Amino acid sequence: MAKIKSLEDLLKMKETAKKNLTIRNAANDENKIILKVAMGTCGIAAGAKETFNALVEEIAKKGLENVVVVQTGCMGYCHAEPTVEVNEVGKEPVLYGNIKANRASEIIEKHILNNELLQDSIIGETHQRAE
Amino acid sequence: MANYKQYILVCGGTGCTSSGSNDIIDIFNEKLEKNNLNKDIQVVRTGCFGFCEQGPIVKVLPDNTFYVKVEEKDVEEIINEHVIKGRRVERLLYVEPEKNEKIEESPKMPFYKKQVRVALRNAGSINPEDINEYVANDGYIALAKALTEMSRDEVVKTVLDSGLRGRGGGGFPTGLKWNFAKKANGDIKYVICNADEGDPGAFMDRSVLEGDPHAVLEGMALAGYAIGASKGFIYIRAEYPLAVHRLEIAIKQAKELGFLGENIFGTDFSFDIEIRLGAGAFVCGEETALIHSIEGYRGEPTTKPPFPANSGLFNKPTLINNVETYANVAIIVLKGADWYRSFGTDKSPGTKVFALAGAINNVGLVEVPMGTTLSRSSYGNNFKRNCFCEIGGGIRNNGKFKAVQTGGPSGGCIPAAYLDTPIDFDNLMALGSMMGSGGMIVMDESTCMVDVSKFYLTFTVEESCGKCTPCRIGNVRLLETLEKITSGRGKPEDLEKLETLGKVIKDTSLCGLGQTAPNPILSTMHYFRNEYEAHVNERTCPAGACKNLIKFEIDPEKCVGCTACARVCPVEAIKGEIKKPHQIDQEKCIKCGACYATCRFGAITKS
């Protein structure tokens, strides 16, 4: 390891180190946005893993510190896999269907950054969850 | 650069390690590799989460799930269910004792909700063996700023203005101490970190060192710059091997990056830190004894003055602070004195780490603002609802609160009537107790106060270095008297003797160990005198704890002759025919209470 000789160098080192910890820091963020990717067998077969990775990469690229991607079990919309649910604090979750990896950036760009829903991809609620 | 998508944090504190967290980490790694998940998920061994009672702790990020009491056999389920299928493993979640509810995320747990973590800011969230993680959380920025932008006086002033008081227990203003050491004349000066934590029930310093060693190193380097020292020593007992190991790694990494060593951050300030292992003698927590021990002599205290700030290690000016004190310094320099003062009380700013133990549901490490009360007055004296107890989760087994012991052998017991007192240095002193290192032992009705004093005094007698007479002989006499009283041979005049001798020892002992040794006796005599009197006058122990004073008897009316008691009695003291009342042979009875706990008919009485 090279020696750190100035405050600037240290701050640079901090930025790099922090990027690696973004997900961990976001976990404690009260206003974190959680993107749930359904990863049942059907989801994975339909490419949910790639979607998951693409979302993580997109978030890192945009430097979003309060957005985390979490995997869940099958949400029951096997016909529309991969499915991604966006959970924001104080808002109803929004469920999107048919989100292949190439549409990850769309969710981040439109929904997360511009508060704009991807109307044509929303799956209507067809059931209620027992809480 | 690996891009992990999920993290599994496993507590690597001493508590969790001793209940197998290392094996859990190994199995996690092994199974993740087998499932080809090791590139997506990182297992991180962190410092103590503080929730030691419920260990080993496993926390999954980013969804923040907090699993408790995880065993090796649970790993597979966590991976299969949580990691692969995204379903929480319900049975491993923490159950809040009061409401009997499962809580999934740590920020929602009462144990964490009430805490403010300053000294423990990184413990449990970073990998203490990776300097990058400390740097990611603002590590060494305070040092860089101080060296390049602040004068030595400004650093001292910041610490002084913050009002930080020594977390070793005495509560001396840290900034003042730094000022003395800075002003002292000397070509060479030293900085020492006192990590000789030895109070029964205290493990704050160990957890800080294990969970965030760099915070202590940075604090020491700041102190070195402020007073003009170039060399630091960490005096730590050898019985803290994990803390020593992490410190060694931390020092090595800090040197490699140039945060320790020559010309730090390109300035002309050079500072180096070495570890010195102590043999684990309580008296070596006394600063003068500690200094002698580093010098290679016996760890015996000497009178002050001269104070170490003027003539300490090798007769050079020496600054000596406790682990927790140093752990607070970097963040104070970074965020400013006012920020620090926004916590705590006017005279005791900031937060304090307490080791919460005893008859309480959530035993563990907590950090709260100074001035937090044991009880919140609006709720009355119901200990179950008060602040500490909200963190502590109430008294174990639905027991009734009796007293809280603070400050270890140097402190005393505080009864229920003072539960509303804001806890800080001065209020504890006024109650006849002490902050001490921050041990906090909660006691319920089954605790005998005479017995508690005896426990602490036994400790002090064993740990006395023997240099001065009051401590060496006086404390032994105190202990003998307590033994007499708890065995039922005490006389009323013994109580006076305890008080008189206790006061003499307080006044005449050479060092803090002796001066505070009688505190447990004096404070319990003050608040629980009736218990002492019951022992000497009525030869009874109201709490039913002193074995020689209790008697187990069988009520022939209630005994159905089930023989259960006779079967559990380890000394065969219970005789009787089946379906007929039994009897206890008092001569043979060792008062273990096994029969009392076994009887389902309430036929056995304890008096």
Folded structure, characterized:
The complex is a heterodimer of chains A (131) and B (607). In chain A, α3 (48-62) packs across α4. Chain A is α+β, with helices and mostly antiparallel strands. The termini of chain A are far apart. A 4-stranded mixed beta sheet of chain A has the order 2-1-3-4, with helices on one face. Chain A has 4 helices and 4 strands, in the order αβααβββα. With 607 residues, chain B is α/β, with parallel strands linked by helices. Chain B folds into 5 domains: 6-108, Glutaredoxin; 131-340, NADH-ubiquinone oxidoreductase 51kDa subunit (Rossmann fold); 351-408 and 428-447, Ubiquitin-like (UB roll), CATH 3.10.20; 450-538, NADH-ubiquinone oxidoreductase 51kDa subunit, iron-sulphur binding domain (de novo design (two linked rop proteins)), CATH 1.20.1440.230; 551-606, Alpha-Beta Plaits. Helix content of chain B is 38%, strand content 15%. Chain B has 24 helices and 19 strands. In chain B, β5 (94-96) and β6 (101-103) form a beta hairpin. Chain B is globular. Chain B starts with 5 loop residues before the first strand and ends with a strand. Residues 376-387 of chain B have low confidence and may be disordered. The chains are: A alpha+beta (131), B alpha/beta (607). The A-B interface holds A 1-7, 10-11, 13-14, 16-18, 20-21, 23-24, 26-28, 30, 32, 34, 36, 39-40, 52-53, 56-57, 60, 68-73 and B 1-7, 9, 61-64, 84-87, 107, 125, 132-133, 135-141, 144-145, 148-149, 253, 256-259, 265-266. Chain B: This is NADH dehydrogenase. Chain B: It holds the Pfam family NADH_4Fe-4S.
